[in-house]
Amino acid sequence: MQTEVEAENTMQIPKDAVVFNGHSYYLYKNLNNSWDDAERNCESLGGHLAVITSEEENSFIHNFVKSAGYRMANFGLSDHECEGSWKWVNGEELTYTNWHSREPNYS
């Protein structure tokens, strides 16, 4: 499973990361790990899984992932604390959603 990291300017940003609206994004390819492992990997690099807060950001990330040849990626939304209560890993309020069918709890 591939992961994507969003990092702030003070974090370890890969040289080939892409930037949108002041945030840097990087797609870690060919990592076959769980969502928890993906988030821990991103945190170990000073970032976190991508947080999507607008239609524009969603379109940007969708095109970024698609242009890299992937159909899926892990994002920083979780209901680990309380089943069915979705929260972004960075604490931002969940105001934008654009779920595919059977999401966000796809299994």
Helix/strand-derived category reads alpha+beta
Strand order of the largest sheet: 2-3-1-4
Major sheet characteristics: 4 strands, antiparallel
- Summarize the helix and strand pattern as letters: EEEHEHEE
Distance between the termini: 14 Å
- The low-pLDDT segments are 1-10
Q: Give the overall pLDDT as a whole number.
A: 83
Helix proportion of residues, in percent?
10-25%
Rg, alpha carbons: 13 Å
Strand % is 15-25%
**Overall geometric form:** globular
Total beta strands:
6
Alpha plus pi helix count: 2
- Quaternary status: single chain
Structural account:
The chain is α+β, with helices and mostly antiparallel strands. 21% of the residues lie in helices and 19% in strands. It has helices spanning 35-44, 55-67; strands at 3-7, 18-20, 23-28, 48-49, 77-78, 87-88. The strands form 2 sheets. It has a 4-stranded antiparallel β-sheet with strand order 2-3-1-4, with helices on both faces. The longest helix has 13 residues, at 55-67. The chain is globular and about 35 Å long. The two termini are 14 Å apart.
Name the descriptors.
107 residues, alpha+beta, 2 helices, 19% strand, disordered N terminus
In short:
This protein is of the alpha+beta class and 107 residues long.
What are the SSEs and their pairings?
Blueprint (H helix, E strand, L loop, with lengths): L2 E5 L10 E3 L2 E6 L6 H10 L3 E2 L5 H13 L9 E2 L8 E2 L19
Antiparallel strand pairs: 1-3, 1-4, 2-3, 5-6
